[in-house]
């Protein structure tokens, strides 16, 4: 009995330590968002002397936060929608159409996931920049589709293989077309795995800095990560405004998870069980 109680206490201590470890960076950002640059440099772990929201007001204006927020929402929502749409249909095609070439297409897609984006940066900018296809958030969505399609297709492919073909055969007997079978039978079954893909892609696209920094040039199309980066200069950085900007950037994604937490947890659990 004592051994079991001791294990329970140790688990609580370990859980608390891990919680503090994960929360610590966020606490540092929040604490320093209320302090001046000089105060942060002197002691970044010290508590602020007063809760002044001046940094937040200045960061909100400097980032043009409403425009940056709308750009991030448009890019993230549009990119996730096209990734889910194309990858689910593409995976269904690769699974159900028993063409020999489909196996090689699938293997090529899986192999492409090991290629790091950094190795493609220079040719990416050279080719698409020379063709005048940069500096547009809608082209940015197209690029996210290209870079996100392989992983989503890989996940959908494994899930669809577990769906009985008998369901589709029964629908064919009833006179359903291939599109009707996919949208009315297959895609609803894919809801758990779709939730998982949406979570992964929302986190990736919302927080991504590298790809937007290569594609977006104009100030009116900047996403939140690009707008936050303006506080970090070559010779000096305004850490107080930067921390306030980071908090403003984190708030929308936290709200997203709070609102959809039940659907997110259900989707992840159902996907894992499946």
The helical percent reads: over 70%
Radius of gyration: 23 Å
Strand and helix order: HHHHHHHHHHHHHH
Main sheet record = none
**Based on DSSP secondary structure assignment, what is the total number of beta strands?**
0
Helix count, per DSSP? 14
CATH class of the domain at 64-232: Mainly Alpha
The appropriate CATH architecture of the domain at 64-232 is Orthogonal Bundle
Contiguous uncertain segments of 5+ residues: none
Beta-strand proportion: under 5%
Q: What is the fold-level CATH name, i.e. the topology of the domain at 64-232?
A: MetI-like fold
The mean pLDDT is 84
The CATH superfamily of the domain at 64-232 turns out to be MetI-like
Morphology call:
globular
Structural class: mainly alpha
N-end to C-end Cα span: 37 Å
Which characteristics define this entry?
MetI-like_sf; 0% strand; mainly alpha; MetI-like fold; Carbohydrate ABC transporter permease
Describe the structure.
With 274 residues, the protein is mostly helical. It contains 14 helices and no strands. The protein has a domain at 64-232: MetI-like fold (Orthogonal Bundle), CATH 1.10.3720. The chain has helices at 2-32, 37-42, 54-62, 65-96, 100-112, 121-130, 137-160, 165-173, 178-189, 191-207, 210-215, 224-229, 239-259, 261-273. The longest helix has 32 residues, at 65-96. It starts with a helix and ends with a helix. The model has no long low-confidence stretch (mean pLDDT 84).
